[in-house]
Design brief:
Blueprint: H1 2-11, H2 27-35, E1 41-47, E2 56-63, H3 64-87, H4 94-120, H5 146-166, H6 175-198, H7 218-221, E3 228-229, E4 232-233, H8 242-247, H9 255-263
């Protein structure tokens, strides 16, 4: 039901009209407000991620406003998670605490930016869901054990990177908004790499290897072993070994896959 509620929130925006000329503090969105009367919609292929060939079995569409609300929900999750981690007595210290504090500020900035951007389109930003960062008890010591906290942080950041990538096609109707989303996407990738390195992992993903140590996070990495791009098996055109080929490409996550992952932490 919690995932259906999120979908309903997104779908409620699908047929809404933008009323009048959009105004915003963000110049990147002013052009869209002046020139587009209705939120553009582009079909987004949903990938069968466990299949090496990445066969495209179905498609769905999300409006630009829906995509931004989708992103906002993920940013709510990350911002609250880091804020709670910083508030937990004795959980984080030293350089790790400084890094998490900086990431926390970034995520809060993303939340405010996305809320402003959605408002500039004449739409209402979705409100933050209520989160359970223990995932129903799976990570019951998440705010008492630094290693568990960082493992969950890695899963969130790696999901965020793939989620933004998965929505790029839906934002192609407006270059300014796509550019703004990519600016957030690249910072999320920096967060992911930093958290992974703090945990002693490589900064990039090898195959579909889940280095969090939590089986519940396996879905975050599903499909990352793919080596076929634009119909070309990349292992056949290079002497680079397969593991390194998979590291050279990041894979998108479908909307449903992201909601399934995030749903574990939504009450």
């Amino acid at each position: 039901m919690k995932l259906l509620k999120l979908f309903n929130q997104f779908e409620a925006l699908a047929d809404a009209e933008i009323q009048g000329k959009a105004t915003t503090r963000r110049e990147a969105f002013s052009t869209f407000g002046r020139t587009v009367g209705k939120v553009a919609t582009v079909a987004l292929p949903l990938t069968a991620f466990m299949a090496p060939s990445r066969a495209f079995a179905q498609s769905s569409s999300m409006s630009i406003a829906e995509v931004l609300n989708f992103a906002l929900t993920l940013e709510y999750l990350e911002a609250e998670f880091y804020a709670m981690g910083l508030d937990a007595d004795g959980l984080l210290s030293g350089d790790t605490r400084e890094t998490v504090a900086l990431i926390s500020q970034h995520e809060s900035a993303h939340v405010e930016f996305l809320r402003s951007a959605i408002g500039s389109l004449g739409m209402d930003p979705v409100e933050s869901p209520e989160f359970d960062f223990t995932a129903g008890g799976t990570f019951e010591d998440v705010f008492n054990n630094e290693q568990v906290f960082l493992a969950v942080a890695q899963a969130f950041e790696d999901t965020g990177v793939r989620a933004y990538k998965g929505q790029a096609t839906n934002l192609m109707g407006n270059g300014d908004i796509l550019t703004a989303a990519l600016q957030i996407h690249s910072v999320e990738a920096r967060h992911a790499s930093e958290i992974r390195r703090i945990r002693g992992s490589k900064g990039w993903i090898t195959g579909a290897t889940n280095t969090t140590g939590a089986s519940a996070a396996a879905a975050v990495y599903a499909g990352e072993a793919n080596v076929t791009h634009l119909g070309v098996d990349a292992t056949t055109v290079t002497s680079v070994d397969t593991d390194h080929v998979t590291e050279a490409y990041d894979e998108p996550l479908s909307t449903q896959a992201v909601l399934d992952i995030a749903g574990l932490f939504i009450k």
